[in-house]
């Protein structure tokens, strides 16, 4: 398959020496794809192109290619010297390769040793069977490959000798040998290989821990001591491990004091707990195992991620994976975390450019090198995401940045794959196996380039030839990280902080905000926000560590998506409507939340049949006979192991794992879809027959069907299911069909009957208690024609919705409350079979007339009857048009109310002969009549009394105001009388006019002022 620069290894040529071949195509994906083209040739040779044999580079002789001098391969598709050695080497036709000059490398000499180069290793002689999701370890100068999915073709263990470039099988000296498995983890400690978990050949997810002694070539099943969990007293449900897990990772970490070594197991998928966000530890010395309580950033459970331990920073770097988003969905992630195994703390780092899972990662001198993986993340439609990737990414451990490294196109193999493994040996990266539609067994090698050729500081900081290059000021040269040159942020690019502000703003709780590498700080209290480096408001409190947070809960409960996983956290409680919720308020566990809750329901993995699996929200894999959660399909069948799955109980069929029960198929069309089945016609010419196991020429048991009645790739022309025949050799069934059937192939029952008439099946009458004429064509559940009548046979009244009556001897009625208006809307899909609805009302007031009103939105008919305490039901209206009707039932004509618990009068309203959708408004009311004379007398009396009361109140107010004024005057006079006083004499001189004599000549006047 080829598209632009993306290609996947072609399907190998298949030779059918019998003269016939069956090609069966299936897809287990639940989204739309663009399809494919297929072509074939008879008596031809293998070819990469469909329009010419031998890829156009050879001659086809008796089904085999004789290649031209410059091409090799079964299909002559591999050039001996690709691209004419790119002008950097000489073509050696005898050795079938380019001999490159200088630092040129690669099969076409297009790569450079200074920049790093890829090559395909070609081991001598034996090559193992391809596999994926295996485990690899390096011991001395050998590569050990353990397990892996290969469709049960590969052996449990192979060894590759780096020095001799040869593969070998391992002779096991012990009788106790583990089953082959995939999705497990392997680490090496001392001279022992430790293998944990995985999926064995039976599909069982294991929790076993095995150790292989390299010196003795013997396996040992290790019995671990499960330590008491940290929170075991608070929550006895907390698992202590080892957990049943697959798709996890394991790394060996030595303690800082070098006193103990542990295997750190991260994440994985468990059939009980779902996607695990747990960390497990195994102590090699004490053989103890525990699930540790972690802190820091809230991580989601993941499958198929990568984890590598960096001895310099003493951190485990966890990238990618298939993570749980909810109880029913899972998605790829591009997130990168660091885990401190000593403080047990998670931190969020810079996310990668793309998401992936089942990739590989190694540490290479200051870089984490990531290769390949599955990047397909489409849902309903395919948007071109690659199932098999050849991306080569580098993560700078010191600078927290990502870079994309180039990958060449190798002529002798394809790099795109997932499920492979990577190791570092002697400074080079080795990649083994994987899956690209087929299981690979090739061994790739990437040799990093040289930093010394980067003679400029800018080029040095940006160059990543497979190792981290740093500039040495002292030597004025570019050197490999770890050669005494500091790794501070000064060696990082100036774009270090780009995009981190947006990352901080997406974090919604304090605990997560302060556990990142993005300089995020939490501003404010519990309702605050996460910001980059500084708060937006100067008065906000900046929080930089978890101890300062008002609540130290970082949202870990929200990451648990099934009941069992939620129950393992003492700070969480499972609520079936709201999922996993925290019971922590501030830093205190709520007593109300800590109460015992009902036990969890079974997980999907605990169901053993299709029926009970599909009744829950689970997926049943038919050929594997396994039940898995809806969000765990990819984690359960990463290599297309499930060839048939369903979520509907109607599609369940009895079968054993790996077998096809052909007898389940009732028609020839269904039978021929299964590649293991064929159809045996009974010879009647009506389409009757049976489905049997067999091949193109005959069934497995020839005595079951004569050869002339056997159909494998096609069906008999006449397919009438035994209820009709086809005239004149045509494929058209003669109509009408017999035996109460209908349809082009007489495959359905006529209305009023139900059953499965396929392949001679019978139709049975619907039993609907005279309250319906039709039923479900398969189950026989009746479609009741009267609203309010329920039950499979229309034998019950819907008492939940206030319908009462006896459908066996009458009908069901809605009880209308007096003085209320009701609106009935019959427009839903389930209402389409209704043609009648009934009401009843009992007027309760004996001295008030009853008013009746009804409005129908579509033409329909209506009957109104009345029944008294002593008489039978009597018709008042018959077949009346129900559009709008108002009527008053007089108290003088009917006895209303209830006496001695006996209803005096009951009105019944029957609305019928309508076709939904429609709405009906109906009401019975008993409002007393208005007496105008009494009303005006009462109103006038009340008005006069109101005036009198107002006049009296006004008079009282006047008297009271006068009293207060007099009292105030008395008080003021008393105050004036009590004031002190005295007499003084004041001489005032008046200014004389201009024509007056001077003041000394005028008589002075005395003025007394009191």
What does this molecule look like?
This protein has about 1000 residues and is mainly beta. Among the domains are: about 135-450, 6 Propeller (Neuraminidase), CATH 2.120.10.80; about 450-495; about 500-590, no CATH class; about 600-660; about 665-715, no CATH class; about 815-925, Sandwich (Jelly Rolls). About 10% of the residues lie in helices and about 30% in strands. The protein has 8 helices and 81 strands. The strands form 28 sheets. Strands 65, 68, 69, 71, 73, 74 and 78 form a 7-stranded mixed beta sheet that branches. It has a 5-stranded mixed beta sheet with strand order 22-28-27-24-23, with no helix packed on it. A hairpin with a 2-residue loop joins strand 37 and strand 38 (about 365-370). Residues about 1-5, about 585-595 and about 1000-1010 have low confidence and may be disordered.
